[in-house]
Amino acid sequence: MTSHAVDAHGLVKRYGSTTALGGVDVTVPTGTITAILGPNGAGKTTTVRILTTLTEADEGRAVVAGFDVRTHAHEVRRRIGLTAQDATIDPILTGRENLVLVGELHQLPRREAKARATQLLRQFSLEDAADRVASGYSGGMRRRLDLAATLVAHPQVLFLDEPTTGLDPRARNDLWEVLERLVDDGTTILLTTQYLEEADRLARDILVVDHGAIIAQGDARSLKRQVGGDSIGLVVSDASRLDEAVAILARAAGSDPSVDSGARRATAATQDGTRSLAVAASALAEAGIDVDDLGVHQPTLDEVFLTLTGMPIDPDDEVTDAPQEVLS
């Protein structure tokens, strides 16, 4: 493995008159999580399909796990795992049988396939349900089993296409913890998501995609700074002291606050939220001004996406980024 588990440049994919990707670059450092963030129809799934050899790009080049996806597709497939948007487990088999079957399909001896299945069932907290048919699993359990199946052959690079879509918050959080442990153990992950919290929590690098193009890239902190950095907000207990508090906040933040007199609130942008907050808190205490609320607000990735594209991400949007017959 090189320093980059995924290294792709200039990926272009067209479906008739529709351009699903318009020249996308993706690099994923080995042993990290990179997220491709965007709404349905942005080009996320098309990117994953190209990188996993399921679709050929019309233009551009991609190297995954050290091999070109076009000229050495078989070598790429031997080194990757893919969890698609829909679970691919067999509902009439038990959890254990599903994993043993996948192991045998990877040409593992049956004894080794059984041992690997037992290991993964334990790793994904599915031991108690191991011998129940998968059709009786909850959505979170099915998703964990599906992810376990992609790990049977010890892939170097794991591609997850919207892995937590449809899961409840608890199941989503459980799966996030699993992914974090995988990276701690050396797995490289590229995931696509519509969930801003997911990208914020998991990814070292985030690619924001819209209409087949990358419109921003960076870690969560740097992306949030694109919408103006932190802000400090306060609510005074006594409305008659609001003007004094506004003056203090302006000096601490280094910018003119916006004021809502009716709510006794003032908010000011700042380049250093923690330092400015400490300065404001000290000055307010020294002046004897009581506050009901005082804190730093960091922009959310939702605000980043809204600023960059003019519209929020809608996880309930049903539009895909490629014709259905191509995705099936």
TrEMBL record:
It comes from the Bacteria. Signal peptide: none annotated. The keyword Cell membrane applies. The keyword Transport applies. It is a peripheral membrane protein. Its main location: membrane. Residues 6-236 form the ABC transporter domain. GO terms for molecular function: ATP binding; ATP hydrolysis activity. It is found in: Cell membrane. PANTHER family: ABC TRANSPORTER ATP-BINDING PROTEIN (PTHR42711), DOXORUBICIN RESISTANCE ATP-BINDING PROTEIN DRRA (PTHR42711:SF19). NCBIfam families: drrA. This is ATP-binding cassette domain-containing protein. It comes from Actinomarinicola tropica.
